[in-house]
Structures are given as structure tokens and as C-alpha cells.
Amino acid sequence: MEINLKAYQNVKVVEIIGDLDSNTAPIAQNQILPHTEPGCRMVLDMSHVPFMSSAGLRVLLLLYRKISGNEGKVVLVGLSDDLRDTMSITGFLDFFTTYNTLQEGIQAVS
Predict the structure, then answer these.
(1) Contacts by residues 81-86 (CB-CB < 8 Å, ≥ 24 positions apart)
(2) For residue 5, what pLDDT is reported?
(3) In what order do the strands lie in the sheet with 41-48?
(4) 28: nearest Cα among 46, 11, 10, 40
(5) Tell me: the pLDDT tens digits for 76-86?
(6) Given pLDDT bands bounded at 50, 70 and 90, which one contains residue 61?
(7) CATH topology (fold) of 2-104
(8) What is the mean pLDDT of the chain?
(9) How far apart are CA 59 and CA 30, in angstroms?
(10) Distance CA 28, CA 22 (A)
(11) Which of 7, 45, 52, 104 has the fewest C-beta atoms under 10 angstroms from its C-beta?
């Protein structure tokens, strides 16, 4: 798994590449969580995540709670049909706003 952090004006874009599972979720959490200061605007680019386990879902929920609890905003972009189905069935889509493209996500949180 690889995590790439980029900034577009006042928006942090986090590109996750690879599976987000019990082996990689702690790494993702440790690399992304320090960038969730109050008022944070974050886009999680999931377009290169082929698989996400419950450990990955927990990381997303932790990020959502930390960012939204500090007057910030986080959105997801590039969810595959499989990830979207998993998140829908588990109720996780109720927490996140999703967009198809990175540009749409950046505009939404700007």
C-alpha cells in the first residue's frame, strides 16, 4: 500500500493505492491522521483501492469523526462498485459524501 498526500490550495488530497485491510489500515491511519487538524478539508482518493476490509472501514470512520468533529469536511472520490456496495451494505455511505472524480471532490470541500 502507498499513501500520497498532496495539497490543492486549502484542500488536502490523500491518494490511497492498494488494499486497505488489517495489514495496511494501521499504516494508513498513522500516515493520514496527523493531517487532520481543526477545519481540515480532505479528499480521500480511493480510485486505486481494489479491496477494503472492516479494518479499512474503521480507519475511514475514525477519519470522518476526527475531521467532522473539528469543523472540517472529508469526502471520498473514485469508489469502485465493489467498495461502494460494501460501504452501502454496512451503512458507511451514510457518513460520507462521495464523488466520481477528484475535481468534483476538491470543489465540494473548497
Answers:
(1) 82/50, 82/51, 83/46, 83/49, 83/52, 86/52, 86/57
(2) 97
(3) 2-8, 11-17, 41-48, 73-77, 97-99
(4) 46
(5) 999 999 999 99
(6) very high
(7) Transcription Regulator spoIIAA (3.30.750)
(8) 96
(9) 10
(10) 10
(11) 7
